[in-house]
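hey can u check if this looks right to u? its 321 residues, i copy pasted from the old doc so theres a chance i mangled smth
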Amino acid sequence: MGMMKEKIIERILRTAQVPDLLEILTQRLSQSDLQSLLLEVYRRRADTLTPGHLLQQYEGNRFVHPAVVSPRQLLEFDRLAYSLLPSSFEVLELSPVCPLGTSSVVAPVHQDNAVTTIRNTEVCSDSTNVLALECARRRRESSRGKSYPEADTKLCASHRLLRPHLPDDPASFPHFRIFSLCTAGRDRGSYGFEVAALREHLEFYIRLLQSAKQAGFRLGAMRTRLTVFDETRYPVLKAEVLEELSRSYSNVEFTLDQEQENAQGYYAEVRFQMYARDQTGAEYFLVDGGFTDWTQQLLSNHKERLLISGMGSERFVSLFG
């Protein structure tokens, strides 16, 4: 909790004159009772609002404003992406909300980076976390009464996300659409799952960017960067991923970096990033992905493997459309 937030909480507790108010709300009340209490609080607050207040809130709250990017261009992008998606991926239409803690329980993300609701949910701030939950649910369901599923679980979603904290970037928006992939499977030795999944994700995004350029999006040179946190994986990734892809896509620059550890603690073993230049030569970060241990945590099974990735389709359309 930051210093400023601590001071705000201290001020609220002093004003309420209930020193243990925070403990009551967070520990003594069940989630369902807290939900009932907050629903009544906000019902009473809503009863005091006037139409003028409502319009004032709409004008002043950036979270509720319409997207600035053309829906037609976003639809064109999605249509192109779905046409290139490998048939093994199932496309899902996700709910606008997900369980409380979806972004913070299995990943090192602060809960304040999501907009929490009073119904014990949060507005979806990262679709890959939700896809990981769905992968875990399906894999646990299919494994009941038998061994773990051998087939990989591959899911895809184009979804609008909401995040309260934004970087200082004109191409960043309070709510935005992300095109994301998630491949969950089981360790099959010799880094077989990882190589196959990584190659499939990378090739999809490369083909998508190249096809978008042919369709009229104003892209220049493209670059793909792999960062390896486990040095023992370096040779196989170089030979079976980068060198394989570079032979098929000679117009894309590929780099392979090695780091001792992931400073953010978000990805495990490998992370990949993809960039593209615009017509002026400025380079933009478009695709991010890597391996995580989320399904291992969700299923309590260290043999589970998960590759996630996402491309900011709204950012892409705003920059290159």
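The beta strands are 90-92, 97-99, 121-123, 153-162, 175-186, 222-228, 252-258, 270-277, 283-292, 304-311.
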